[in-house]
């Protein structure tokens, strides 16, 4: 197993892997603006390599780019499929070479992710991982159900929540976490439980629940675009799913849990360097995510949306009666229902607003002259 580190020369390793294909390439694309990756795929088609590309049916603000990429690959002679629309997103990224080598990636095929972001990927020849990746690829290209068959190959929403919860629960000494946005209440409770048990938990990224008492720092020298956890210096997870409800339960995401000590040790060293750098920047007065203008604006919008929500308790009562039978007695606390729904809506709106603004800023930065 080998670790791909961004920003670095990892993209060159991927292109070399594509160039070495002898029979087939199977690749899943969520975003792509790198001409060198696209050209490597076209070259593979010209060499007679069966090149099968699965392209996300949509992504925020980039659907036109996806459709143009789709047409260019089709014109080059590649086989192109589009994901279904049964999940909110098909967000995972991977490349399978000759059904013998798997590139499992946390980053997209974009200059922003590869040149200006901290992210990781894995190259593995592990037969079980490769076979499971092929199984998933075939299911998603054919728009058929996928049933997980390997515990350490994590697919949302099939088995990722269960396996990531177990991964956290089994921590005894330390959990080092990169995550853009940890917001799932059950996951946060697990992290807090481990912290109370004496586990050293450190997070580079964000935790949205204000009550969470977890040490968090912001990566400021680079954009953060990885979801990675290192447990007790011996096992690690790298994937596309953050520890938040939508990515665990409503999107297609993929990750791997592994125990390659050489890779794990390198991840620990990189995390420690990033943690130190984040602390140094914080000492110089950089604000955390919750205090930024974007976060404040997102909270304001979320409150306004929740305030104008129509009552939901009567609708829920009717729906429950339809489920359990019209004569059944259903008792609900209307005030509690309204408060719970409004809190959920506020959380969802706040996260969505911050996502939209942050992605727009990132795209604007990359489009500046000289970037």
Shape estimate: globular
Instruction: Quickly count the helices.
Output: 12
- Output the structural class: alpha/beta
How many separate structural domains? 3
Indicate the CATH topology of the largest domain.
Endonuclease, Chain A
Quote the beta fraction.
Answer: 15-25%
CATH architecture of the largest domain: 2-Layer Sandwich
- Relative helix content: 40-55%
Compute the separation of the termini in Å.
32 Å
Concise structural overview:
With 371 residues, this protein is α/β, with parallel strands linked by helices. The strands form two sheets. Strands 1, 2, 3, 4, 5, 6, 7 and 12 form an eight-stranded mixed sheet that branches. Strands 8-15-14-13-9-10-11 form a seven-stranded mixed sheet, with helices on both faces.
Which descriptors apply to this entry?
371 residues; alpha/beta; Endonuclease, Chain A; 3 domains; 8-stranded mixed β-sheet; 7-stranded mixed β-sheet; 12 helices; globular
What do these coordinates show?
This protein is an alpha/beta fold. It folds into 3 domains: 2-141, Endonuclease Chain A (Endonuclease, Chain A, 2-Layer Sandwich), CATH 3.30.870.10; 153-287, Endonuclease, Chain A, CATH 3.30.870.10; 292-366, no CATH class. 45% of the residues lie in helices and 22% in strands. It is built from 12 helices and 15 strands. It has helices at residues 10-19, 35-46, 63-76, 111-116, 127-141, 160-169, 185-196, 245-249, 261-283, 293-307, 313-324, 334-366, and strands at 2-6, 24-29, 50-55, 79-82, 93-97, 101-105, 117-124, 153-156, 174-182, 200-207, 216-217, 223-224, 227-231, 235-239, 253-258. The strands form 2 sheets. Strands 1, 2, 3, 4, 5, 6, 7 and 12 form an 8-stranded mixed β-sheet that branches. Strands 8-15-14-13-9-10-11 form a 7-stranded mixed β-sheet, with helices on both faces. The longest helix is centred in the last third of the chain and has 33 residues, at 334-366. It is globular.
């Amino acid at each position: 197993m080998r670790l791909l580190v961004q920003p670095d020369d990892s993209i060159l390793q991927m292109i070399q892997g594509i160039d070495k294909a002898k029979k087939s390439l199977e690749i899943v694309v969520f975003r792509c603006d790198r001409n060198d990756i696209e050209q490597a795929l076209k070259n593979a088609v010209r060499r007679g390599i069966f090149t099968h590309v699965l392209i996300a049916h949509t992504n925020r603000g980039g659907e036109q780019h996806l459709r143009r990429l789709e047409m260019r690959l089709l014109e080059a002679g590649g086989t192109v499929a589009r994901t279904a629309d049964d999940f909110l997103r098909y967000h995972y990224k991977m490349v399978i070479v000759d059904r013998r080598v798997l590139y499992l990636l946390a980053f997209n095929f974009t200059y922003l992710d590869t040149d200006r972001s901290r992210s990781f990927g894995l190259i593995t020849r592990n037969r079980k991982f490769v076979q499971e990746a092929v199984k998933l690829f075939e299911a998603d290209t054919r728009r058929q159900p996928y049933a997980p068959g390997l515990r350490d190959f994590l697919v949302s929403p099939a088995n990722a929540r269960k396996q990531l919860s177990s991964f956290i629960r089994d921590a005894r000494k330390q959990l080092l976490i990169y995550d853009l946005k940890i917001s799932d209440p059950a996951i946060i409770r697990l992290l807090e439980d481990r912290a109370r048990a004496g586990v050293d938990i450190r997070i580079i990224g964000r935790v949205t629940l204000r009550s969470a008492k977890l040490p968090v720092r912001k990566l400021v020298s680079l954009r953060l675009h990885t979801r990675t956890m290192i447990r007790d210096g011996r096992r690690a997870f790298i994937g596309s799913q953050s520890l938040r409800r939508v990515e665990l339960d409503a999107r297609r995401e993929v990750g791997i849990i592994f125990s390659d000590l050489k890779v794990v040790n390198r991840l620990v060293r990189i995390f420690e360097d990033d943690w130190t750098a984040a602390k140094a920047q914080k000492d110089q007065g950089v604000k955390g995510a919750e205090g930024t203008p974007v976060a404040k604006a997102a909270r304001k919008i979320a409150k306004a949306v929740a305030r104008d929500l129509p009552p939901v308790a009567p609708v829920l009562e009717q729906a429950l009666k339809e489920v359990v039978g019209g004569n059944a007695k259903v008792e609900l606390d209307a005030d509690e229902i309204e408060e719970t729904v409004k809190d959920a809506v506020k959380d969802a709106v706040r996260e969505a607003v911050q996502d939209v603004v942050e992605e727009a800023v990132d795209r604007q930065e990359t489009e500046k002259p000289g970037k």
